[in-house]
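Whether sequence alone determines local backbone shape is best considered at the level of individual chains. We regard such an encoding as a compact summary of how the chain folds. The sequence in question and its structure tokens are set out directly beneath this paragraph.
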Amino acid sequence: MTPAAAALVLFSVLFPAKGWYGPDQDWNINVKPPQGTTVRLVLTDFSGSTLDAAPAPDRTFSKDGVGELKRLFPAITTAGTYFLYAIPIPANAGADAREPGVARFAGTPLVVTVRQDRRAGAPGGPMAVKVEPLRFAVISTEAGDMTVAFYYDVAPNNIANFINLAREGFYEGLTFHRIEPDFVIQGGDPRGDGTGGPGYGIDAEFSDRKHEFGVLSMSRNVDPNESPNNPPRPEYANSAGSQFFICADKSRDQKNTSQLDGVYTVFGRIVGDDGLRTLDALAATPIADKKTGRPVHPPVMKKIEIRPVTVKENPYGRLQEEAAKPTGATTVPKDRSTSSAK
């Protein structure tokens, strides 16, 4: 067990009984309060709004126990993305104490993704449920570090792919092979020329999340027939693998990157001024070929580290402030691309 994994086990409070559940199974969560501490389970949506729940005593644990999510939080049976927190309760608080906030949780929160069968004619209600620790990424580069929080609510499959590649060391030593000031920096290609990937493709998860400064999105092959009225065909839309780009357009209206909205998979965002300054430094890298964006010396990704969220390291506040924005299909790009090959 790695030191990071050992620390996660040591300090965690919430543990799913397993990673996936069927709709008719009990969605059990094991609760292990720190010694001498009482915790209450609190569920929020991705935006941070607390959801209705069973009476507080039923969600309170002073010793190891099991909480069944559908019983404790009836609203969770609606398809969506939820955060589950264990909130310490002061020793002198009664059972009817006012519902605490989520600013000071214990251990690492869980992400609960309730997935619906969206095929035509499919029955309503949840189809499957995924439960996992809430995590973020730190991209370490020659210019500094960038902390990334994930948009679990719109791109869970692409996030899982990114996390798996990062944890297996795929990105270590790769470069940002393409840099276009005021547009994007792009990396994650093992070949280093924009043609490589992990050897497989992953389906797109397009949404209304905007390609704003600091946003991460997946690269893919460009459909030669794409236009404002022709979205990419499936074989192009679903061609992402390991390459990703970070938006470097600082204009107020994102006039350069807004054309990517709705047809590239947004999956995360750089959080914190230090990370945005690192992005600025990378985007200012001298360019050898302006047509391709090839840098003179492509900046190296030393590693991408995946970390569990804790009360001391929690970059999700900024994303929750924005999460009320609607999600769904929007427009297609007009003339600029972020292509890659598998």
Summary: Confidence is low (pLDDT under 50) at residues 1-10, 328-337. The two ends are 32 Å apart (CA to CA).
